[in-house]
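[scheduler] slot 2 assigned
[scheduler] job type: sequence-to-structure, two independent chains
[scheduler] chain ordering preserved from manifest
[runner] begin chain α
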Amino acid sequence: MLSVASAQELTVKEMKATNDISASQYERKDLNGQACALVKVLLASPGALFEGNVIGDVAYKTGEYWVYLTAGTKELRIKHPQTQPLQVVFKEYGIEKVSAKVTYTLSVLLPGSENNVKQQFTIRYTPQDAIVIIDSKPYQGSQGVVTASLQTGQHDYLVTASGYEPVDGSIRLKATAPTTLRIDLEKTKDVSGSVTTQQKAAELGNEEPPKKISKLSSPANDVSDNNDKEFALRSAVETFTVKGVSFNMIRVDGGTFTMGATSEQGSDADDDEKPAHQVTLSTYYIGETEVTQALWETVMGDNPSKFKGAQRPVEMVSWEDCQKFIRKLSQLTGKNFRLPTEAEWEYAARGGNKSRGYKYSGSNNLSDITWYDGNNGIKAHVIKTKQPNELGIYDMSGNVWEWCQDYYGTYSSSAQTNPTGPYSGSNRVLRGGCWGKFAKNFRVSYRKNLSSDFRNFNLGLRLVL
């Protein structure tokens, strides 16, 4: 089970849209000239930093921060010197995404200020003789129901019974409403059984599905949240077509993995890959391949690549060029494409929750998966000419370097959820290695960084949705 959250955590009390006209009266526009949303973060302590689709400087105005966000933004990361970082997913507070010229308030409590805020947590379970443990403390249930009054914030739970597969997970209690889980354990099959055991969760009123935490021996732990529920209803592969050019996006189911210098990287691991640390990600989609020259030219009207070929990856593009491409692609499709975070890139490269622990993406043998200096690596090659990784994703090791969204920075040993990298920096991260490079550069944990305006004939990109 996950450990109980540290006391040094920020807590969200509530988030809501208001009739405040500040967003219109003090309008700010994004890079596309579109009006922003304004989130007033009610936090009576200076020094907080904000990450996400933040536009311009954040102003602190006596107990509240004015944070302008691109319309359509769905989450915000808050960092404070006294606490752990907090990822606020707006959907958890009834707001799918923020809208242009609308002012929102986001009430955030510092550690200690929420000590007297308690909320009711109920678990309904079968069989009725199951044992329920919350934060390492057993609770006495009655007729398949346990109710506990707990401080707001994160709590761990376990439901177990003899002859049944146990279910464990974690839940974050909000001050705005009580939380109820429904957990139906399933009988454990013997080793000859053909049906695997799985957790069932049913929503009742305001109930939430429990977050699944797989056994520690698994390569990645499944997690479930509102975003994952939405993605679960969609196919494993989604195809998009823009003016006759099609591309596939592969679903990467959320999970927990160890990022950085893991054991299979051995002595090849560089200092900036350390310390290895635990990262939990929500479900997302990532490009089956690197962005092709055909797609880039369709969207942008030109092809900057040195090694021309419609089905070769686009190259000679900077991080800033990628942002322009993504904005236009998003307008054409009505979807919010972006570059992957560094963590999303590495998790997908490792094979997500299907990872087999390879040193490179999809194999320990480079020639199986990519073009490099040892097998005619003198140019970018046509996509999908080598075998994919465990998730069916091609060329995550090799072909061209792939820009990530994050600023480059050092790693922390702390566990993180949906990290987005440093708040600021001078260079952006690239991953994956490229044609003509040595084997070390193709490792799933290898990191490179360059200025956001730098272009070269070995720099490309991969999309995330």
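[runner] end chain α
[runner] begin chain β
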Amino acid sequence: MRAREREEEDEVLCAMRRKGRRAVRLNIALQLITIATALASLVLYFTQDERGADITVNHIAQCVCALVVFNVPLVISRRFRCYIPDFLTVTLCLFTFAHFVIGEIYRAYDKLFLYDKILHTTGGVIFALLSFSVVWLLNNAEGRKTKLSPFFVVLFTFCFTMTVEYVWELVEFSADRLFGLNMQRWQDSIIPGAEIVVGGEIVQGTVHSLAYGNGLFDTMSDMAVNIAGCLAVCIFAYIGMKRRPDWFENKVILTEGQFRAMLAEKKAQAKTAPRETEGEEERETSQDTEEES
């Protein structure tokens, strides 16, 4: 019995890994590109005299953060023996690569118009999908007596996504204040060489082209587009749970037991399908013989 159970368990785990094989390949490819980017930055530091150590350290730190995020889905799926759908893993990996490598290292945030707002909108969609998958997983766990209504599932999804966005804005604010960075774009509105009046005297001072500075505008607009992306997912999820409650089954994060049940259901359907076709053929032949007679 134990040997058979182990074989079934190994079969389920292998099936879970096979199902997510495409996402793993993309994950590995992006990790290799990230490592190559870090090595290239290190080589440029030793070959270019004008390249400062702060830039190289920043690039390597960005690559390390990206590699950590890349491996989060792999660690979670193996540690907790769960299946993460390909579209979740792919979107998370592409978002991570777009932010840390393309945005921070190759400075797409400075060179491409609305790149920052597009990523914040996409981030709202991604974290809303992740939080919804977790809530759906817990809400439909085996042996659970009480279940949350669609409204509370969507409410938790919205609150979790907004919490992630709020924490990220705190990270940007702290990085700007502690290390003099420009993550909140507060330096973009500074007018160089401006003169202000202090105590009746004209002195050199800091003047912003926007009221309250560009940092406040950047933070509020980031949160606004993040809310827009999150709301799109919440509205879609709420309508789907109301009209077709079973549509999300097997399309979100699954535990090992839920994945095993999905495989058993597919095998049962595969066995019943030939029987149904045989029954239809027998009915057709009997109808033909009756017409001939």
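[runner] end chain β
[qc] chain β: The mean pLDDT is 80.
[scheduler] slot 2 released
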